[in-house]
Design brief:
Strand order of the largest sheet: 4-3-2-1-5-6
Radius of gyration: 23 Å
Strand content: 15-25%
Number of strands: 6
Distance between the termini: 36 Å
Order of helices and strands: HEEEEEHHEH
Helix content: 40-55%
Structural class: alpha+beta
Number of helices: 4
Largest sheet: 6 strands, antiparallel
């Protein structure tokens, strides 16, 4: 049981450290003009200022169609950690079963370990993919004031994440 608790602690610590937030965004304008790999900089009146390729550029808030932050996928890391956790849980379960039942065989140990590895890997894959889901905002569905509030929050969050 101690192994399970230790394993869960290690995995949760690893996943939280993997969630380093990317500060780069992509803007798609109403006219379908893409601005990839930008950093949100400031907001003044009706204009968003962003940095791209070493330059600071302005864009009208109302000309923004989508704002997207691409996150990296953690599926591979999730599978690895999930399989490790599943293996530990499967082995612990097998050990507990063999202690309680003298007829317990090594094939059951292999079955529990394999099942734990498979189920842990599947759970890790799902969690890893969920952690890597893109952040997309459709600004067409928002009025001007909502756009200003959203962009202000995103800029503030970016600046907070950069300082840490």
């Amino acid at each position: 049981m101690k192994h399970i608790i230790l394993g869960i602690f290690v995995l949760s610590t690893a996943f939280s450290s993997l969630q380093a937030q990317s500060q780069t965004w992509e803007i798609i304008t109403v006219s379908e003009q893409p601005y990839p790999t930008i950093i949100l900089h400031s907001l003044s009146n009706d204009t968003l200022t962003f940095k791209a390729y070493g330059q600071t550029m302005p864009i009208s808030i109302d000309s923004i169609k989508y704002l997207k932050r691409k996150k990296p996928s953690f599926a591979g890391v999730g599978i690895l950690f999930g399989m490790t956790a599943g293996t530990i849980i499967g082995l612990e379960r097998s050990k507990e079963s063999s202690d309680n039942n003298p007829l317990f065989t090594s094939s059951n140990t292999a079955w529990n370990t394999g099942a734990g590895m498979f189920l842990g890997g599947a759970a890790g894959f799902i969690l890893g993919e969920a952690l890597g889901a893109d952040e997309i905002y459709d600004l067409r569905k928002r009025n001007h004031q909502e756009k200003v509030e959203l962009l202000s929050q995103l800029i503030q969050r970016n600046q907070k994440n950069v300082k840490h």
